[in-house]
Structures are given as structure tokens and as C-alpha cells.
Fold:
Amino acid sequence: MASPTAAVRTKRRADDEHPSGDPRFALIDRTLKRFQYQQDALIEVLHTAQEAFGFLSDDLLIYVAHQLKLPLSWVYGVATFYHFFTLKPQGQHNCIVCMGTACYVKRAAEIVAALQKEYGVAPGETTRDGLLSLATARCLGSCGLAPVLVLDGEVLPRETPEGTLARVKQQVG
Amino acid sequence: MNRADLEAMAQREQQRQQAFGCRILCCASTPCLSSGGQAVYDAINAVISEGGWEAEVQAVATGCMGPCSHGPMVTVQRPGEEDVVYERVTSDVARALVAAHAGKAAAVAPVEHVMPASAPFFAKQQKVVLANSGLIDPEKLEDYVARGGYRALAYALREMTPEEVCKEIIASGLRGRGGAGFPTGLKWDMVRKEHSDKKYVVANGDEGDPGAYMDRSLMESDPHRILEGMAIAGYAVGADQGFLYVRGEYPVAAKRLERAIRAAERRGLLGSRVLESGFNFRIDVRIGAGAFVCGEETALMASIMGHRGQPVPRPPYPAQSGLWGKPTLINNVETYGSIAPIVENGAAWFAEIGTAKSKGTKIFALAGKVATTGLIEVPMGISLREIVYDIGGGIPDGLAFKAAQTGGPSGGCIPAAHLDTPVDYESLKALGSIMGSGGMIIMDEHSCMVDVAKFFMEFCMDESCGKCVPCRVGTVQMHRILERITDGSATPQDLATLQELCMMVKETSLCGLGQSAPNPVLSTIRYFAEEYTAHIADHHCPAGVCTLEKQPVGEWVTA
Structure:
């Protein structure tokens, strides 16, 4: 339930922008309001925060913990438990290679190895110049088209190591 | 809206659809879209507007039609004629088929792209849960209602008591489609009998099993069916709040479900006073954040409550003490998908499908080394051979079938010798695998079974929530041994230790993840022991996958 102070705070913020001057906080506040500052909504709030900022910085976690009146350790625990949340900034482009069973038996590991060799990043890391983040996923649910990868939000079916490298190079430069 | 309004709405929509001389259904699910489905849909719409055929021809973006590897798929419906299914449609093919079916005599239908309805892929299937999939626009409530949607809910609310609904589900013999196969009706009855001021209904759409995408497809292709099933469940157990937990990797499914909920609430099919009865039922979507363990029911509930997804010991079962300590009914989305047909057609009809102990149909995501991959729904008890060779079209490139993996990281591999086994809960369990949520990966000679076991063990090691020791530590140790076997540094003693560890983790883990994590290892040792010995004793990988570049350390120590 919304505590009285929370209600006051919501009211004040509704008309003027966030004190930090960063409009992205308004998105988080909107989600907080939608769930009436319920602590159960932590995961939903973190989803919104990551969508707005790209990753969950320490400051963001502190902000969310304050707003929901949860200990920071609790918020940090949840943020690190789930794979979906990332605490590190992401690259301009991102490439997610599916490593689900169907993709694995169709040699998706070779695609990861090729990308890793070319860009010198391990899955879960970002290149030094911040251009490309490489990640692997457990299953993207497109097993009929294995091996699958997602390059900047676009699902690419039936990839090969060479084809993928060419596509990524074209996109990333 | 009441029952009469619902009927009227269905009739209106049916008449509207029949007014079109031709309806062109384009698959707009992820696999077809990534094979160029959007261009096909755009081309079809362009041809329709160029020809000025808007009144006669309708293009509809639908959900999954099944044979994903043959995408993009297009189905043409004409009143009084059989549907024609086209595979591997390109923009040019699309233009030709619209012209041909719109009745312009000069144009010839691209027959070489037709997938005949008699093809074993379709003929061997029986669609109950996927009955609407690929035939309706998932974003339109009217489409679902026109095909008899929400009629079962209206019937249950009006003509049945909650007790009768539970009895009907028990009589149907429906078992949980999430994998464990607990009788659904019994679970409902348990929750119904609990006394509490508040009860919850939860749909498990956290399909974490790699290689399975039935739930995603169902949620994306026919969202209202799940909502209707949940509402009937809510009525049967006396709950007024439902949660639909959707995997974080499935944003499209979550968006469609949310839209479907809003559409149903607007028409009075959900929310307060459902269909002008005294029953209230709200559904909220909760989006997961990527944790395999959240498929376990107690972990899933922890996640809904905003906690880390760690399981808690059972009992108490969710039926007694679930979300916020209240009685909670939790079923897989596919289970909810079977409810409306059971209520509508009766338990006896459903019980006729399948085998003595496993009733109804099961959706499988057929993938891996098989000619036609995609989503299939088959009656329980069909043989594995029929699935692989008839529906799947056999193994490509003239290679031999080696094993079928079912149940993902909790299941096992079924070798060629057992191809004629009927696919049901008991038979698969006897073979050391499980039905699981429905992923079925076919492997050929080029798959190394030790490598596959290692793959699943790595998965379980990563996904272990870390709460109980056997799972947290055991999976790491087992993975290390498997790593040694595949890099060539294992000794015969390692295999014995591995088996001992398997038994220990299986018997002592807290939740299903740990208890079933050794299954892939145990089943591959059971059927492919010679591959393990080839790796260890002969330093050779029969499938040619493992590098085996290291030497066992133990040998020169003991020598």
C-alpha cells in the first residue's frame, strides 16, 4: 500500500520534472506509481529502470531501494540474481547468440568462437571502444531456425560463422 | 456483455469473415518474420490495394502455423473450399497467389509452393490446444470469439458449479503440461477445498527449457485461450486474481497478453462481474527476468512477489500456502490452453484422445537435425518414430538418427532402439527421460552424447539458484568431470565418481532443478556408455566433436 509520504511525493512530482533533471527518472516514477510503491513490484521497477538507462548503475539501485523502502542489499540481490539485469554499461551494438539446445547441436558455439576471436571479447563483455557487446542466450524460442542470433534487435536465422562475421562487421564497422 | 451478446458477436464476426471471397492468413510469428514474413505481408496488402480488392480479399497477420523451417507460411481460406497452405513464400510468390485466389482467372497459383493438407506433417497431428493457432489474428478478440472463444467460460459460469468444473477436469484425465504430469483436476479440487478469503491463480509461462518454444507460440498465437482457461480455473477454485508469469525473453508474448487482457476487460469477459455473473476475475502479467529456476513453482511465486527466485521446501504446497501465504493454483499455460475445449466438448471427448494414463494431446517443439522443424501437436501415445520420420520428415543429408532429447536439462536422450516407444508420461519416464514441457531435439551421428550431457550440466550449473548445497556444488563437480572426459584428461575412476555424484544430487536436492539435473548424464551413460569409454579409454570421440587434446594426469602418478 502507498504510505502517506509516498502519496505526497507522487503528487509533487507529477507536475514538475525529476529533481535530478534527468527525464528518464520520470519513467521509473511512473512504474512506481502504477504499482503504488509496493515492494512486490521490485522486478517490474528494475525492468523499467534498465529499459530507460540501458543498465542498472549503483545510483539507480540506491534510488529504487529508497523509493520502495527496501534495503539496498535486497535490491542488489535481486538485480544480480536474474540474468536479464546488467550492472555494466552496454555497447552501442549488441549481438546475442542463442546457445539453446537446438542451436548448440547446430554448432552455435563456432559462431561465438568466431566473434570472440575477431573482436576479442568473451560473451557477456563489451569491446574496449564500447562498440559491441557480445552475449549468449539460453534459448530465444526460435529453435526451428537454429542457429539463431539477435543483432541489434533483429533476429537472424540459420547463421554461419562467416555470415555472422560479415553481418556484424557491416553493422558495427 | 452476457452470453447472448457473446453469441451475437461471434455471429457478426463470422458473417463479416464470410463476406470476403478470400482470406489470406500470413504467419507473423518470430520464425516466419525473421525469414522475411513482413515483406510477404506487405506485398499481399500492396497487391490487394493495387487491385482494389479490399472488399473481397482480406489479409490477416496470424500466429504460428507449425512448420517453422518452411517459413514464411501463408494460408488461403475460401468459403466452401479447403484451406491451401503455401510454404517458403517470397514477395513474388505472394503476389502470384493473391492474384490467383482473388479470382483473376489469368493468374496461375504458385502450386510448387503448396504444402498439401495430406502431407504427414499435418495429417498426423491433432490440434486441440493449437486449434486456433495460425487461423486467427491474436490481437483481435473478435477472431477468437468467432471461433467459439469464451463460450466455455460462459457455459461454466452459467451451468456448472465450481465443484462440477473440478469434477469435469478430473474426469478428463488432463495432467500438468509443464512436465511433471500431476493430475490437473486434483490440484484444482485441492485449492477449491481450501478455506481462505483470497486465492490466486497463476499461469506458468516461464519457458526456460532451452530448445522449447511451445508456450511462447501459444501465448503469441492465441492469448485469449489462456485467459479463458485461467478464468475458468479462477471460477472453479474461487480465486479472483490471476497472474500470468511470462519469460523476460518473450516481450512479444507479454505485449499481446496485456493487450488481450485489456480487450477482454473492456468487453466484460474479465474484470468485475464477468459475463454479467457474480464472478470477478482480474489477470495481471508479470515479466520474468531470466532465471531457469523460476519455472519451479515455489521459485516462480517468489519471483512474482519481487524476491529472488529461490525455491522453498514443499510441503506446504502452493495449494495450501502460495502467493502471500494464500492458496494458489499454479499450472502451465499449455494446461490452461486445454481447459476451454474440455469444458466445451466434455471430459469424455477429451479422455478418448491419448493413452490409458496420459490423455489428450501434447505440443512439441520439434528441432535439431530433422528435415521439418516446427511446432506440432500430437495425440499422446504416438510413437517417436512417427514424430521423427513422418511429421519431421526424417534426418536430412542421409544421416542416421541417433537420439531424441526430451525434457531439456531435466530430461534425457532416447536412443534409436526405442524409436517405437509411445510418447506418454509413463513410457518416457521408464526410459529415463521425461515428457518435460515439450522440447524435442533430434540428434544425428554428428552429435557427441558426452558433449550434450556437458552442455546440459553447464546449463544447470549456471542456473542453480545456489540455495541448497547438493545442487550448487554437485553440478559444478559433475561439470568438471564431464569437462575432463571431453578434453581427454579423465580416468576410469572419474566415471564412477560421476555416477555416484549423480545419485547424490538426484536424491538430496531441494527442488526439481537439482533433482533432475543428473538426468541427461544418467540417460546418456545408460544408452551410450560406449561413448564414455571411448573418450576415456581409447581417447577418441566417435562423433568427432571433442578435441581430447589433454592427457590424464592420474595415469603417470599411479604408474
